[in-house]
């Protein structure tokens, strides 16, 4: 392994299997050296310059020749390009390509992450030049062939810190058949009008595939002139859009829909907080400022109620999870970490977007045109078996079938939401599911309980949405959208793309016949893998930055004690999330006390062999921050003392309630320590107990024994 580095492609041979049956091998041939630059800190040891990689998977320091430091100072973060690969008897050699700055500089964690994960963060000159040549506003010729919706009071509803607005909504009561219903308009920014297939902007957008969101910074998929200007549905200006116009029944079913290009005029820019306040009190101060829009918002809330009703009938999975938001100061330091609260305004927009996405998927399917679907498959047989075992072990009394439906998962979630261990159960339900991917083979969306689903509503920040817009436009014009020959996924995420490809199950026979292996179908498959891989890459880069910020934040709190909840149990310890800060760290198994703990995979808990104390998801503990590893992005906790409820909440065994079990375990432990029992005692206590209870034998008896 000394001759290879992380990301090198090699040929290996399996030479043996270890005692656990795991294959062991050796590198036979190095097929391809990685061209990915290495990020690290420049150090000097005994007059020798070297760079210690920030990514610990590289495993070797890189030697830097004296004239190749690019005037970087000791301790600075640099980008290194390899000039000599490692060998069996020599370290890799490189030259400093770029100096990023000091490790504590504001925003350095983002600069490291974008290079570490190969996130494209600079637009090409051709792309920027083309963006500068675009108009600043909608021109008269742009409106030709479009429906004029400028008089319709469409509004945007987004977060307080949003800068790009890609969706607007409007709702009014309508008669659907003989019953009551609504007409719901979802207008989405028409990015495809300005980003032509194969153009310089399109090439850069495809390369990025998604916008990447960091605390205090966004790396957009499109140049700012498009993402925050020409394609953003800003208030009081005309904008081009694609509209999904729907008729929705009182039961929440989409009775009819149509797509068409339009020109719109946003009549207001709302925030989620503002809309939630208006809906909760139509006579309050927020409502007084927006009197002319109150009825429209109430109509939106009514149609949301109908769509929510349909969601429950479908049995779509809807688990309540806590998402957090990092609030930073001007220097980039964390001020606080707060939970994101989802109110009715969030859910209202979410349901409207879901309805539009389902209509777009149905439109593409009905036309028999290839496209990218958002596919979320059900759990694998292995995960089903693990989930069944867990549900049985915890005595829930409910289970899932061999081919489970989302309604079964939702039924378990509903039945257990009042239990003290609901968080643990919902976490296991989520873990048993697969990750969603983009693919031309429609296998449905398991979590949302849709037979077909795609992404239509965010073309400013997601490339699959832009492709869906192009397909819908082609269908409206009775043409076929031809996907150009796309480049293969870049080296940084080629491995991830192959892994995603192996997860996508073979489509049904009908679909296999419909999309035969042609250059066109292969291009769509490649586009799906590329977009899925880049989505994962963006998530990993965002998590890396958040972990770095949290580690830096917790360095200021070393030695302090906090209460927390166990969010995961493993064979090597417990992951605990702090109540006050929403920061996760590891309590290693050696920090749990002076006894042996066994990991129960079925129950997902650690159990002490001597005391019977159990730690599982949902257990409340008190910890001390003991160590922070900024380079490794790791925080270690030490168990200080347990709170009243030490066992996983709601877990019972043959002896009764969790609290009774705990009290019994503590009583046994104290009994053993006081020497009143002979079995299973610590040796020192047991020997002391015997010495105090036995009489000293006489000299005569000693001689007879001898």
Number of DSSP-assigned strands: 28
Please compute the radius of gyration using only Cα atoms.
Answer: 30 Å
Name the shape in a single word: globular
- How many structural domains are formed by the residues? 5
* Measured distance between first and last alpha carbons: 64 Å
Measured by DSSP, the beta-strand proportion falls in 25-35%
Can you count the helices? Answer: 18
Give the low-confidence spans. Answer: 489-497, 502-515, 643-664, 670-706
Mean pLDDT: 84
Record the strand order, biggest sheet. 3-4-5-7-6
- Major beta-sheet overview: 5 strands, mixed, barrel
Helix content: 25-40%
- By helix and strand content, what is the structural category? alpha+beta
Descriptive overview:
The protein is α+β, with helices and mostly antiparallel strands. It has five domains: 9-103, OB fold (Dihydrolipoamide Acetyltransferase, E2P) (Beta Barrel), CATH 2.40.50.700; 138-377 and 434-543, no CATH class; 378-433, no CATH class; 558-673, Nucleic acid-binding proteins (OB fold (Dihydrolipoamide Acetyltransferase, E2P)); 678-706, no CATH class. 32% of the residues lie in helices and 26% in strands. The strands form nine sheets. A five-stranded mixed barrel has the order 3-4-5-7-6. Strands 8-15-14-11-10 form a five-stranded mixed beta sheet, covered by helices on one side. The chain is globular and about 80 Å long.
Which structural traits does this protein have?
alpha+beta; OB fold (Dihydrolipoamide Acetyltransferase, E2P); 28 strands; 18 helices; 5 domains; 706 residues; 5-stranded mixed sheet
